[in-house]
Design brief:
Rossmann fold, 4-stranded parallel beta sheet, globular, homodimer, alpha/beta, 3 domains
């Protein structure tokens, strides 16, 4: 179980970087950097059967992760998250073969734990003592937890409107938590200044190359859980889009390994109509830049990202997989949140509910055909957003 | 993977009951009933090695669970919960070999999911259409989720002071949720009346025999995760005490199977000083009855149980394992909650924090010796109790 990491690479200008040094974005063109692996080596030394016998955690994919020593990973217990059939919800929205990947089962209750576990572990390997990042709440809570576990300092900047529970999570783990009047973009400017001034390592989304590798395991897991077969569609709630980019990267690596074949799942970027920069860019045929969304607002606070840094990678993933981007109203998402809970017992976060509403819309439009296998990504626990529940007890 | 369930038995008067019919408590003497298995059959047909290859979920112990068809279990994805080393917290409290079993990783974020998964699954097998129970919040949220997943009706009664997030969880899954002015004992009276009047199945703690079997898997898991070795001490936050009774039952069955040997871990019932009926009974040398605790109040709301129905079983488990019962102040627990989060990155529920304070006290008294291996049970996620975080952002 040794990492096959070889180097970092700019996907835009192909500039290579030494993976044993700290990097943020491409110094030549500003693009996020991607971790590259010796997949020939992995193909020769690892089989799907060998994988089968390993512990059922995200660390089972050690060869495809950047850690030199996976046994020394900073861990809070990252079991593979369940991929649940959702037959009753499926019947309600006309998608009979419907599945939900329930990421709320990870430490801190969201998929952000994947990125934090790998990002903090790798930062520690590379000698980082103090990380910093802007956050809409859940990423900061996850990074704060893993930084505490690692004994690493962390500074987070979070919008005042972020879910209060996540701010408590950051505070309790001892993160330096700065509350910002504004959106995540404003918090990002503050963190950038702090990094320049104090030498903190900037672990902002896609300004740090390893968070993505953690998110990638979401894609590896779901394909393995389906017996190395591919679903027809994967719907992902898209803010910064790292999970979607990570799933596309997982598919790419699995294909190069020869572990999957056939047509890739169509990836869907589901957004809220109050903050839909990717949808607008997609509909305009733009393949590089999603223009900033003005006055962004949605109950799905985690995806309130007016201008994702990975816009080009997101749009590329949608294009390469014959996917699409779709926006839904907050009210639709909250209706689906209730329905998912009542029909399947799964109390999802509003971001997860956005994927249900998106799947329903795409089925109604015929973009999802009858009988297709559809996987929704529920990125976190509904309990982190108690105010999204409208039904009251008697 | 076939259940070896044979019958139900009263542990007090030995009366046997047909396990294929619905039962609550012993009709002869009022004691809770225990599920009994053909352990000779299990010993002949299942090995620890065979177990090793099974999926890492609580259902791997199918032979020791009451479900006739484990493949038809009502499931939300119950991965084995992590057993985490806590070296930095251990150093802080003088317990070098300290571990935390983190039950917050289960569906609905608490160990209550174990009981609900088995309880609802078994109720469905036995034809129940409507269950009812009093709850301090987390059990109701778990049973509401599993009942929704099963398409079963559920009525829960919850004290007005219960964590508001858990009330939202019950509401969103469609449970009939009744808010009660009073404690869980008052809620219990209301549910008993409703069961008598409407024919609901009473799934109150230990009035329903299978919830305990789900909780038992906590003990099976932690012993298996330690390579079938036994820790010296297990500290459990005790309200109704089902988890503690379940762990003792797991030890008993594992010993009868010959899968463990040597001295059992000493079980510790950790309680809050504002509601410590078990501690008071234990200190008085009482082995049958814990008298009701007047004016019960603690921030660890989940263990605000003034009179546990399983008092005799709890006291017996403590006595049989050379364990003890200890009470801690709320302030001590909240200090440890902060410390656990800051040192290990684990944001525990206040009940979990009670076990840290108890372990510290027992180490200071010398009851826990230097070098002993101690396992704390964190029964749920801290995010369910955001108000327990006192530290604020800048």
């Amino acid at each position: 179980m040794t990492s096959a990491l070889t180097h970092l690479e700019c996907p835009r200008c192909a500039q290579g970087y030494d993976a044993q040094a700290l990097h943020n974005v491409c110094t030549a063109c500003g693009s996020p950097l991607l971790a590259r692996y010796d997949l020939d080596l992995v193909r020769r030394t690892l089989s799907r059967d060998a994988l089968d016998a390993r512990p059922q955690t995200m660390w089972r994919y050690a060869e495809l992760l950047p850690l030199q020593d996976v046994a020394a990973a900073v861990s809070l217990g990252e079991a593979m998250t369940p991929l649940l059939r959702a037959p009753r919800l499926g019947a309600a929205i006309g998608v009979d073969d419907l599945w939900v990947k329930d990421e709320s089962r990870l430490p801190t209750g969201t998929f952000k734990a994947r990125g934090a576990a790998v990002g903090v572990s790798r930062a520690r390997e590379l000698g980082v003592e103090h990380v910093a990042m802007p956050t809409n709440g859940n990423a900061g809570a996850a990074w704060a937890a893993y930084a505490a576990r690692a004994g690493m300092r962390i500074t987070v900047a979070v919008p005042r409107d972020a879910p209060q529970i996540t701010v408590r999570e950051m505070a309790v783990t001892g993160a330096d938590t700065i509350v910002v009047d504004g959106l995540i973009s404003d918090a990002g400017r503050l963190i950038a200044e702090g990094c320049a001034e104090h030498g903190w390592f900037d672990a902002s989304t896609l300004r740090e190359p390893y968070r993505l590798e953690g998110k990638k395991t979401m894609g590896l897991e779901l394909v393995e859980q389906l017996g190395w077969t591919l679903p027809d569609v994967i719907v992902y709630p898209t803010g910064g889009g790292v999970g979607l980019i990570g799933i596309a990267k997982a598919l790419q690596e699995l294909e190069e390994l020869g572990w999957i074949g056939g047509r890739w799942p169509r990836l869907v970027a589901a957004q809220a109509s109050g903050c839909a920069p990717v949808v607008r860019a997609w509909e305009r045929g733009e393949r590089r830049i999603a223009e900033p969304w003005p006055d962004a607002h949605t109950v799905a606070f985690g995806i309130t990202v007016p201008k994702p840094l990975g816009d080009e990678l997101i749009l590329d993933a949608l294009a390469r997989t014959a996917g699409c981007a779709v926006a839904v109203e907050d009210g639709q998402a909250l209706d689906e949140l209730d329905r998912l809970a009542a029909l399947e017992g799964l109390f999802a976060c509003p971001e997860g509910a956005v994927t249900v509403a998106a799947a329903r819309a795409l089925r109604e439009q015929g973009w999802i055909a009858a009988g297709e296998r559809v996987v929704l990504i529920n990125t976190g626990a509904g309990v982190l957003y108690p105010e999204s529940v409208r039904r009251r007890p008697q």
